[in-house]
Amino acid sequence: MDSGFKVWLPTLNVIEPKNLRPTGGTIDLHHAEDKWNEANPYQYLMVKNITDEAYPLENGTRTVAPAENSLFILNTNIMGDPEKDGKRVFSFDGITYYNKVEDDGKIEDGTVEDGVFTGNGSFVFNGEEVPIELKGFKVAEAAARMRHDIRFGDFLDFRTETSKAQEPKEQHYRVRINDGTIADGSIDYQGRVLKFATTPAHVKLSGDWTSLDYTAFKYKPKIWKTEHTDKYVDASGTLSTRPESVLNEQGEIQDAVNSTLFERDDYDIVVEGLESTESDPDALDIATGMTDYWVSGYTKEINDPGKTATAIAGISFNPIYLSTLRKRLGEVRYGAQDGLWAKAMMMKDSVGGIASKGYDQDLYGVSFGCDHLVRNTEEGLWLLGANIRQAHAEQDLMAGQGSGKTDAIGLNAYATWANYQGAYADFVLSADHYRQKLSTVGEHGKITGKYNTLGWGASIEVGHMFHTTRNDLSWGPWYNSWWLEPQLQLAFYRVEGEKYTLSSGGRIRQKDADSLIGRAGIVVGKKFNYGEDREEIDRRYSQLYLKAGVKHDFLGDRTVWFGSDRFDGEVAGKTTFYYGLGGDWQFNERMRLYGQFERETGDDYEKDYEVSVGLKYEF
Q1: Which InterPro entries does the record cross-reference, listed alphabetically (predicted)?
Q2: What are the angstrom distances between the C-alpha of 338 and each of 366, 383, 507?
Q3: How far apart are the C-alpha atoms of 92 and 145, rounded to whole Å?
Q4: Which of 23, 195, 314, 492 could form a disulfide with 558 if both were Cys (CB 3.0 to 4.6 A apart)?
Q5: Structural domains of the chain in order of their starting residue, each with its CATH number
């Protein structure tokens, strides 16, 4: 078998190549179109001579083939009912027959003279007798060629016919075992052991990861090995006692033919010295030179498509839009008026995703709003407003496993109160629509998915500015002053759960995701005015400030189902610390420019930067 070739064996059920030299290729025993067809059951591959060396060249030298890259793909039904689900098989000399009705399986011997068949026998199949070419075979030889068993999977039967001058070299091959139970995600093989291969001691098999696009996990078979015993009770052709059996504790023969399925309790009684090839390939010294291999379950690890889907499905949108009054409108105390405003922002952060290494995200957004000053007295003001916002985010999984894109559009309605002694309160209601796309690569190519969902929430923020003035204290905050502003905020936000199907057939279901974020912060700044004539106040001003604080999500649990596999986790950024700077510039009576720069760090979260710039036009 030349390196890189993939062999599909679709119709033969007992394949007996004389020589097999896997050199990095793939030998796939599955049936692509009719894998579960009753007339085409599991394959049996017997190799009379398997080697990982090239044949001798003319000059007498040999080359070693990359056997470690060779892969055998088998299919099994470990959870099958021993009484119902096994594929009943009778085969003779490479021709396989199958039992389909209750009376099938009856074998009528041909005529025998001096231990040699002089006439053909027959096998009852589908209720009819099918001839068996027995004529000319010795009884013992015919018995050795007969196989009559129940198969629960494909089977590998390797031999090595090497000369005494050629000592066999150790050979290693990978085995990928596919099982239908994996497909629905309900894999649980505890209590079952299935025999799937017999090899010479120097031919060693190890499990290979089986990655399936329609499940969140990939699986590696738990492979065990025992000493193989060829115990022939009778060579007369009777099939009541079969070869290739193991002995129980009492020394009695226990059937362990090809593709034998044991309940684990029975198996523990039958076999001593069970060793795992995964933990220690050389743990068992096979004295007879032959080894039986068994599979008893699978180790499970989330695969790349699963990581991508669950990470992006677990995106928390709320941290993107957890806004504050200063981020949205800048300073509102000094001469607030009816007006229009616009703001642009950009952000880059790194987020720990559910069941994955997380993702990097780039976000860009714009907002457009309108304010109405409903009340303005010497004591304070009330400002009502609304804004629409649009954002686009792109996510790249950190290990290069996939990517995602988010498009969002939303609406805010807000009411802001402030008095001239420095206190303020800001109330916000939010509603958003999200369109999420994701893309990754599975074993069989690109996998994509998309879904739409809604988010809504409410926020209340309070604070108080303590300031100094340069001259008369009665002038208030219109003039140059240093100020300090403690702040508190509590924001609730819910993203509605959604169900969707990936292009590979994988089904994802997200639970409603709730966040209740509390924030405590402080802002320290300096205000500069353009004049100090109390009689003619010049309302142009500028101010700069530094800010810092802490956030904590009191809810923030995320649950995502990938098929029947459930993933739970807390939202990234459960507790974070932020810091930054900002400023306002009222550069004429009607126009004000404001902006902020912020960074944030915390639990599975890192915000490299968030920059926003806004412009307010007052009527």
Answers
A1: Autotransporte_beta, Autotransporte_beta_dom_sf, Autotransporter_adhesion, OM_autotransptr_brl_dom, Pertactin_virulence_factor
A2: 20, 8, 50
A3: 6
A4: 314
A5: 24-56+64-75+154-302 (no CATH), 309-618 (2.40.128.130)
Give SS3 for 478.
helix
For 346, the token pair is 């950009």
Reduced to 3 DSSP states, what percent helix, strand and coil does the chain have, rounded to the nearest 5? 10, 55, 40
Q: What is the CA radius of gyration of the chain?
A: 37
Tokens of 490: 């509590």
291 neighbors 280 (Cβ within 8 angstroms):
no
Q: Could you read off the pLDDT of 119-153 as tens digits, one per residue?
A: 777 766 656 677 777 788 787 777 666 666 678 88
Instruction: For residue 233, give Cα distances in angstroms to 17, 145, 148, 287.
Output: 28, 16, 16, 21
| pLDDT number for residue 168 | 66
CA proximity to 326, closest of 608, 522, 65: 522
User: Do residues 516 and 490 make contact, with C-beta atoms less than 8 angstroms apart?
Assistant: yes
User: Cα–Cα distance between 430 and 408 in angstroms, integer?
Assistant: 13
- 3 state DSSP class of 313: helix
Residues 6+ apart with CB under 8 A from 75: 29, 30, 35, 42, 153, 154, 177, 178, 179, 180
CA distance 355 to 510: 14
User: Rounded to whole angstroms, how far apart are CA atoms 453 and 481?
Assistant: 47
DSSP per-residue string spanning 43-96? -EEEESEE-SBPPPPTTS---B--GGG-EEEEEE-TT--TTTTSEEEEEETTEE
What does the pLDDT look like over 183-218, one tens digit per residue? 544 455 556 788 899 888 888 888 888 766 666 778
> How far is Cα 249 from Cα 142, in angstroms, rounded to an integer?
31
Name the pLDDT band for 167 (thresholds 50, 70, 90): low
**171 and 162 in contact (C-beta within 8 Å)?**
no
What pLDDT score does 619 carry?
86
